[in-house]
Amino acid sequence: MLPTENRLRRREDFATAVRRGRRAGRPLLVVHLRNGSTDPHAPGEKVPPARAGFVVSKAVGGAVTRNLVKRRLRHLIRERLSALPAGSLVVVRALPGAGTAGHHELTRDLDAALRRLLGGAVHGKAEEKAER
Asked: Which GO terms describe its biological process (predicted)?
């Protein structure tokens, strides 16, 4: 599960990330990233942590399949939060093929999309463990 401070909840924040952010598409998902330094909803100049949200439509599958995909994506993003710029908004939209894809395939597509958006700077806990 994502920590509360890293969850994207407001409709306006989803819209901002999708409409004003950069996009990287892969066969199983599309990642929208909006770099931001301040939260428009918070008073003051405090830089909030990176926040992530997920869009998994009925095209992905039934309720059980959609929830499985969301759980997998939440787990993957949680491991990569440290690589995201502070204050950024990330929306991960699952495409219909994500419902039948395995964990490894989702990992591959998410990492490739984030690498493209961040210029190759994706380095999460999973990659740190692999290097040891």
From this structure: tRNA 5'-leader removal
